[in-house]
Amino acid sequence: MAGAGLWAKVHKWLALLMAVQILFWFASGLFFAAFPIERVRSEHMIAVQPAAPLDLQAAAAGLARLGGEPRAEKVELRNLFGRPVALLSGREGRPRLYDLASGRRLSPIPMILATRIAEADHAGGGRAVRVDRITANDSEYRGALPAWRVRFPEDGRALYVAADTGMVTARRSTLWRVYDFLWGLHIMDWRGHEDFNTPLLFVATALALAMSIAGIVLLPSRLGFTAWLRRRRRAQERAS
Fold it and tell me: Is the pLDDT of residue 233 over 80?
């Protein structure tokens, strides 16, 4: 009985200490299970782009005109609104985007081009309502900088377009922000919402594990199994 009383006290005080965080874990876990991550990332809102063949001869001629540019370790060719462009990148320096038809450098892309790119990527069909230049990462965007944040009217949706590459690097919505907030509660990183290797989370998880073990130890007593064993033992002693 003394042992059961000790385990009961351990279980009770740990439950009181961890109740709120355990509630956060269960509630956030239920939310994560209810919404597919693809929907959270707004992948269902990516517009299907028609396949546009790349004119390799024009692209090769355009690359030849860039012979005087700094050496690149990687060259990516693609179409941008029907025009061949090349993205040159390396280990040092920022990526550089060029229009191969004219040889003109496009990056960092201006606000108007970033808006066109975001509207073409957005399957909602709506027009952008606000565009902001982003020069620092925050809890909502941790991608390449500088970038353009292009906002749309529905669902608090915002697309981020990297200024150096002209590519959509992130898609955000009200659902994503709720998910991100709950993720911060889940991993106990209330500011950055991304670090789950913290001493605080380790200690909280260890305490929750100890509470669970104490509950398992108490389970036979709470179900009456311990009392049944004692009655059976007394009956056997009287019979002998």
Answer: no
